[in-house]
Amino acid sequence: DVGEEPNEINLPSWKSPALRNSRPLHYRPDYFNYSLPNQAALEIKVTKIGCNTTQTAKVEAYFSSAPEGLTWPDNWHEFYVDIGGNQIKAGGKFGEINIPILYYRDVWEGTIKFDPTFDPAIYSSGPVNLGILARIVSPDDPDFNTNPTNLLELATHNNNIAWRLFELQH
Predict the structure, then answer these.
(1) In what order do the strands lie in the sheet with 41-47?
(2) What's the mean pLDDT in 76-105?
């Protein structure tokens, strides 16, 4: 996310270059493999574009299965779906990391471990689209527009939010 509000440069919003799998399989940074536990981590890149120094901030990371994950915040906070009579967690927060003090044009990268919590085979025989959302939370730099429930609108109008669709294989 380049920090523009609205973010018309980084379209489509679901392909943020600020998020990628740190251990990509077949050199695909948008791919996670469920059958390889403890092998995945989300790399997050933060670029400070404002002139004010950010003193206290953290990145919160969430996942949600698609297409359910298009509604914010309901389908990203402890979200479950019923599949064959079983309640399967299909969305939730999976980590957070503190961001050091950043000055104008500073770039910081961090990593959050991510192990998908559900087997994509319960959805289908093929891969499953998995949305990952990283949100910068800081009292120094609040979200610009927190009202939208539509994730596309939320990601487009907030420079504190990065969103990327990943492919989850089994």
Answers:
(1) 19-21, 41-47, 107-113
(2) 87
